[in-house]
What we know:
Elements: H1 8-18, H2 22-34, H3 38-59, H4 74-85, H5 93-108, H6 124-136, H7 140-160, H8 165-168, H9 170-188, H10 193-206, H11 223-242, H12 251-264, H13 281-291
Helix pairs in contact: 1-10, 2-3, 2-7, 3-5, 3-7, 4-5, 5-6, 5-11, 6-7, 6-9, 6-11, 7-9, 9-10, 9-11, 10-11, 10-12
Amino acid sequence: MELSFDSIASLVAAAESAGRPLSALVLEQQAAQLERSEADVYETMRASYEVMRTAAAEGLKPGVRSASGLTGGDARRLHEHLQTNGSLIGGLLPQAMATALAVSEWNAAMGRIVAAPTAGSCGILPGALLTMETARGVPQRACVMSLFTAAAVGMVIAENASVSGAQGGCQAECGSASAMAAAALVELAGGTPAQTAHAVAIALKNILGLVCDPVAGLVEIPCEKRNASGVANAFAAAELALAGVESAIPADEVIDAMRRVGETMPPALRETAEGGLAATPTGRSLFAQVFGEKAPGGCAACGACGKTSASS
């Protein structure tokens, strides 16, 4: 069956018509387009999943630090806290958050990761799927297959909006990753294609308008913590959809809204490190700490503390 990646609605219609999981249709089409066997294409995706697994394990090891020295160790800190003190909320979510942090920190430490869909949002999908495997006993094959569903959602978003923080803000990165993870989670839980679409819409709505404001221009602060909140968002969206909660705004309209919101964002809030958290006094101080020089624009461009460049 020929799939169209121009809308979530068309993907849902194809899966409903075929009476098969979306992941199976995506695998079948990709194999046909690449002129490879389905087993071969599956193995390629399984290899990516194993990279995710390794990244999560490496990110939890002692001594993980980014090249800038700004971040590292938070995933291990959270993991040890959960082991020692338990969690406020219990369940699998804290584990998913620790995994998402670990992969993101491993990225900042120049480790090998899978951009899913970007490096800055690389922890969200692994955080969701690896946790489902380890905490819920979901078979590895099912987790790998759900990556095909996640990929299909990512392709629609990339086609109709953007997955780039520089183009659409962090809503395009962590937002897209959350939507992809939510779709994968719904499929893993046995949800319907329609519920998958609602999960995508809910996840994107929850993070609509999130700016991209990397401190010192590095994909570390606040990016890593947004991976933890992003995987929490994915689980929340999937849980709502599985319960039968529907998004009043269809997924494709939410994606279009995300594109329009991104287009109206000022450049300072789209990965230029000129606004948001990057422009706070502490953000500029961290820039100086890393690069040994004053942040571009000086205090006058910040406006956060009310000082002028002369008084600072």
